[in-house]
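Per your request, structure below.
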């Protein structure tokens, strides 16, 4: 028997087996019987909702959002601190200050602030930029290094940065 004949016989047997399996399904008049699903009990849904409410207590999220909207202007700056929401707040230090930062400069153009920040980071300092808008003024982009938990370390770094970058660095209170 040649190889071609063997392939033809094998193929024919395969097609015959498929026909024996599937042809009765096609010509069966009833087909597959449907499944009848019982109606859902209406009391089940409120019970599920009640269990969910017990597991997830009521939230005051909407009230907190409303309160936050009263504290923030249309551009996202906090009305009291002048700092954009989500960014570190730099302010004048007082007796209650726990963390400090060294502010090197303020820029009207954000690109200038980013350039100085990148230069500081390349020199190994933890620099960041924070946006600040004084009341009635334009947005300033402040470049600072920090935070520090020790004021003496911030003072040493203030002197070093002032000399190295030829700026008048200031020590600021770091907050959120």
């Amino acid at each position: 028997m040649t190889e071609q004949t063997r392939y033809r016989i094998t193929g024919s047997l395969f097609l015959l087996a498929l026909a024996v399996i599937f042809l009765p399904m096609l010509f069966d008049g009833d087909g597959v019987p449907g499944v009848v699903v019982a109606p859902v009990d209406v009391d089940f849904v409120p019970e599920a909702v009640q269990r969910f409410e017990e597991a997830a207590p009521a939230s005051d999220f909407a009230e907190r959002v409303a309160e936050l909207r009263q504290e923030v202007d249309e551009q996202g700056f906090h009305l009291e601190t002048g700092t954009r929401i989500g960014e570190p707040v730099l302010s004048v230090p007082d007796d209650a200050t726990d963390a400090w930062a060294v502010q090197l400069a303020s820029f009207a153009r954000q690109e200038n602030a980013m350039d100085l920040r990148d230069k500081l980071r390349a020199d190994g300092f933890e620099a960041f930029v924070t946006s600040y808008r004084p009341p009635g003024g334009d947005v300033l982009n402040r470049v600072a290094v920090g935070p520090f938990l020790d004021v003496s370390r911030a003072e040493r770094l203030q002197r070093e940065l002032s000399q190295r970058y030829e700026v008048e660095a200031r020590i600021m209170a770091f907050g959120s």
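The mean pLDDT is 82.

Regards,
D.
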